[in-house]
Design goal:
The protein is an alpha+beta fold. It is built from 2 helices and 7 strands; from the N terminus they run αββββαβββ. It has a single domain (7-28, 37-125), classed as STM4215-like, CATH 3.30.2000. It starts with 6 loop residues before the first helix and ends with a strand.
Amino acid sequence: MAKAFPRKDILQSLYTKLSGIASVYIPNRPASTPVGLSEFIVVDLPGTMRDQNAYQDASLRLDLFQKEFAGGIEDVNGLDALYQSVIALFPIVTDKFTAISPRLVAGGSDEKGYHYLMIYANILTK
């Protein structure tokens, strides 16, 4: 019998852990953001959650958004500070899962006033 993938538990745990760094949204970027919001994180478990019998695995994507300077200029220092705060949490270990092997992927402008970076990682359930 297949074991249920603890998607909700993983998302709630990451929401709680990352909320200490910035505002968190699951699983998509909001269409609009509150005035004055300088940074936020989007948590998603894209793709397939695979059952490997002894454990389950999936991909984790964290999108890190930082408000741009006037004229659409990236706040490199602000985005790097957000990245450093998040990457310092790895490996993320809970009683339900472990998030390991974070990989930085370049983002760019979202054309809505923010620049972003993406962190991909592996999730292994317990």
